Each structure stands twice: as C-alpha cells, then as structure tokens.
UniProtKB/TrEMBL annotation:
GO molecular function terms attached to this record: xenobiotic transmembrane transporter activity
The organism's taxonomic lineage, starting at the top: unclassified sequences, metagenomes, ecological metagenomes
Organism, as annotated: marine sediment metagenome
Xref: Pfam families: ACR_tran
Segments traversing the membrane: 26-44, 341-361, 367-389, 396-418, 438-458, 470-489
Stated name of the protein: Acriflavin resistance protein
InterPro entries in the record: AcrB_DN_DC_subdom (IPR027463), Acrflvin-R (IPR001036)
C-alpha cells in the first residue's frame, strides 16, 4: 500500500504543475471562466478612443498685451518669462512667439520629468515676475494637451461668407446642446472684424489725430478690473465690461463731447462697417464658400457615440437652398473599420483553425484549440485596463499582429497530444505527456517573442507613448495564450 502511494507521489512530482492542472478540471474550468467573464465584462467597460491618450511634456505660458507691437511683447513679456523659468529643473527647451497684442512661451520638459511639479514650479516662477507692463492681462499657464478630433463636417454653398459663418455658428450651437458633444470648433472662415475708415479731411475738421481716435476707441472698448467689494459672504470682484463687438456699437462711441451736450460720435467722422479679417484666403469647396466644424472628444467619451449624435443633428439641420454638407474626416469611421477588420480576421482565423485541425487531427482537439484562442484574446482584454491600455487604432493593430502568433503554441501542444494518443495512451496520459514534451520549446518561443517587443515599451518621447499600446497588447495576449496552452488546454 505504501509502495503504491510512493509511486503515485513520484508520478505526481514528475507530472508537475501541468499534470496537476490536467487532473484538476474544476480549477481549470474556474480559471477559464474567470478569464472569459472578466474579459467580456471589460469589453463593455474599457475606454474606447481613436488614438491612445497620453500626456505631452509641454507647458504653455500665454499673456495678452492689448495694443502692443510684437517688439513690445518680446521685450515686456517674453524676455522676463524666459529669464524667470531658466532656473526651473526639468526644462529641455523654451520656444517663444510674439505677435500683435499677445505672446506665448512653449516650454518642453525633459522626458520622465514629473509634469505637475514642473508645472507648479513654472507657475510660481511666472507669478514672481514684477517687471511685467501694467497693461497686460493675467498670465495663463497650462499643461499642453492633445486635441482628439472625431469627425469634421463641412458646409458649402453659393452664399456669401457672412451667411456661411452664421450657418456654421448656428450649427455649432445646436451640436453643443447635445450632451454627447462637448467641444466643437469652427474653421476655414475668417474672424469677424470691424473696419473704421477716417478721412484726413474729417480729422482736420475736428482737429483730431488718428492716435487720439484710436486711444478713445480703446478706452471705450475694453474689459478692466474695477476692484472688489467686501460682503458678509465674501469678496465680490468687480469688472467693467465695455468691449464692443459690432459696427453699430463702435459707431456710437463719443469722440468729442461739448458742454452744450452735442456729441460727435465715431460714425459722424468715420465709416464703420462689419466685415472679416483679411487673411488672403477663405475656405472653398468646388469654388463655393465653405465652413468647417471640427468635433472633438473629451475625457472618456466614445467616438462612435459622438459620430452618431453629430451626424443625426446635421441630417436634421435646416440648410438654406444651395447649401449642402459633407463629411471631410471621420476618425470614428476609421475606428469602426479597424474594429471590423479585427473582428473579421479573428473569426476567419478561428474558423480556418477549426477546419484544418478537424481534417488532419480530430474535431474535439480542434474545438479546444479554437476555444483556447478565444480565451487568450478575451482573457487578455481583462488585463489591458490595469496597464492603462484602451481600445484604439494602435492597440487593435497589436491584436492583428498577435493574431497569427497566438495560435501557434496551442496547435503545437494539441498536435503533440494527438500523437501520443495515436500511440495508445489514454486521453489524460497523452495530454500530460504531450504537453510536458513540448512545454520548454513553447515557453522559449513565447518568451523570445515577448522579449522582442519589450524594447518598444521604453521608446522615448511622444512616439514611444503613441506606440506603447502595440507591444503591451502583444505581450499580454501572448502571456495569456501561454497560460492557456500549458494549463487549460491539457485538461480538456
């Protein structure tokens, strides 16, 4: 009796973990159920986006300086900012841009730098500057982020630019009223501009100069802080909002006021008209005026839901005669096509494996190899959120890459088990012996493939962050497929 027990223990020791799992069908089925249930649940909850989301290593400092020339912006804003951030650790490069009325400084951080700490250090450095001109507005310091556009919709037709822009703004307002859509930008149309044309004759008539008129207009059309009022509930900040927007408002600005109450307004000495800035070109499609609306996704919004909501609104939007709409770019459609390609290839691969293994081996073995592929992909899906990986164009490309690899280990194990059964072994003995016989080649095959993809996880810069989901998906799916081939497949 003891001799039989010793032989059984020795046999169990030789069979190892593979033998234990093959003989313990409850543990195997429970493991498979966890992988399938967890993966299916994750499929509905995992973040879905067109391209992977990652943080940019840039900090932007923007300062408005109304009425200042680019040279004044450079001297009064850009140089003090550059000097202030010079001592902040983790800065790789500083690029400044001066333009009429504002300046912007883009600060690139060294890869691996703690973004929030660098942001706070830069913000504090900007707040310590005491040499800014008095006329500037509050500096804005922000971490740069990527815009994630989903779909671009264009309106075009034989109407004037003014009408086309109004149509675009009206459609933009309706789009933003939908709770699914949170960011829409108008493009390919010039900004509104009010033109003020004064003849030298009128200036001489009222003894004025262009500089005096410009100063009056600027003072009469600006938003300025007006102090604060202390109340029992706290401090209330006051601001005088006098900014003008249209020609009629500018035209009523008093230029000369007399004691008798007779005022000379801007429209009395100048021609004030609404128009557009002269940018040299307008958006056109087929020689017709054109306006573009770019719709973006924010946070964890689904591109497919945004696309559906946007197209439904546009289709019901009342356009005047002669105006039509078109879809210029649809990232959601690209996402859907890639998802469809992945699904079709996955199903095709499973069917081909089932047919070939059934023809050359046996149906039962073919079925479990096919199910093993399914478990590998669905089970791997469960682990992706733990690594911060979403379903996007890059991660789906990773699924396509690993699709042709993941089936190899299961086929190798299955074919070897079949060979042992042909030699007369029982199903259990053949499963254990066949799996142990090829376990090391299968392990080394998977591990070497994983090692080949590991360096891609550590690519530096934005390129590395962009492509990181590809090796992550390949490594996770291969690891789960190895687990399935060695510990789940033999039991079945």
């Amino acid at each position: 009796m003891e001799e039989n027990e010793d032989k059984q223990k020795e046999k169990t020791r030789k069979e190892g973990v593979i033998g234990y799992m093959a003989r313990n069908s409850i543990a195997v089925n429970l493991l498979m159920l966890v992988l399938l249930a967890g993966g299916i649940f994750t499929m509905f909850k995992i973040q879905k986006e067109v391209f992977p989301e990652f943080q940019l290593d840039f900090v932007e400092v923007s300062v408005a300086y109304p009425g200042a020339s680019p040279a004044e912006v450079e001297q009064g804003i850009l140089q003090p900012v550059e000097e202030a951030v010079r001592g902040v650790q983790g800065i790789k490069e500083v690029v400044s841009e001066a333009q009429e009325g504002s300046g912007q400084v883009t600060i690139e951080l060294v890869a691996g730098t703690e973004r929030m700490k660098a942001f706070q250090d830069i913000d504090q450095a900007i707040n310590r500057i005491r040499t800014f001109p008095d006329d500037i507005e509050q500096p804005e310091v922000a971490l740069q982020s990527r815009q994630r556009d989903v779909i671009q919709i264009g309106l075009y037709g034989k109407v004037d630019v003014w009408t086309m822009r109004q149509l675009g703004e009206r459609l933009r307002t309706i789009l933003l009223s939908d709770p699914t859509i949170t960011q829409v930008e108008l493009g390919n149309v010039p900004e509104y501009e009010t033109r003020i044309e004064i003849t030298s004759k009128n200036l001489q008539k009222y003894n004025l100069t262009l500089g005096q008129v410009a100063d009056i207009i600027q003072q009469s059309s600006s938003d300025v802080p007006a102090g604060a009022v202390q109340t029992q509930s706290g401090e209330i900040l006051l601001r005088m909002q006098e900014r003008k927007q249209f020609a009629e408002e500018f035209g009523n600005i008093p230029i000369i006021s007399s004691e008798s109450g007779a005022n000379v307004r801007l429209k009395d000495i100048a021609e004030v008209t609404d128009g557009f800035e002269e940018i040299g070109f307008y958006g056109q499609f087929n020689q017709q005026n054109y306006v573009e609306l770019r719709i973006f996704r924010i946070g964890d919004q689904s591109p497919l839901e945004i696309e559906e909501a946007a197209l439904a609104i546009v289709e019901n939007f009342q356009l005047p005669p002669g105006v039509k709409y078109r879809t210029d770019s649809n990232r959601a459609s690209d996402y859907r096509e890639r998802l469809s390609l992945l699904t079709e290839n996955g199903v095709l691969a499973i069917v081909i494996v089932l047919i070939i293994l059934t023809l050359f081996l046996e149906y039962r073995l073919a079925f479990w190899v096919m199910l093993g592929m399914t478990v590998s992909f669905i089970g791997g899906m469960m682990l992706l959120p733990l690594l911060g990986i979403s379903i996007n164009m890059i991660s789906m490309f990773g699924f396509l890459v690993v699709l042709g690899i993941v089936v190899d280990d299961a086929i190798v194990v299955g074919e070897n088990v079949y060979e042992y059964r042909q030699k007369g072994m029982s199903a259990m003995e053949a499963a254990i012996a066949g799996t142990k016989d090829v376990s090391f080649p299968v392990i080394f095959s998977i591990v070497t493939t994983i090692i080949a993809f590991v360096p891609l996880l550590f690519m530096p810069g934005e390129t590395g962050k962009f492509w990181q989901p590809l090796p992550a998906v390949v490594i996770v799916i291969l690891a789960v497929s190895l687990l399935e081939a060695l510990f789940i497949l033999p039991s079945h």
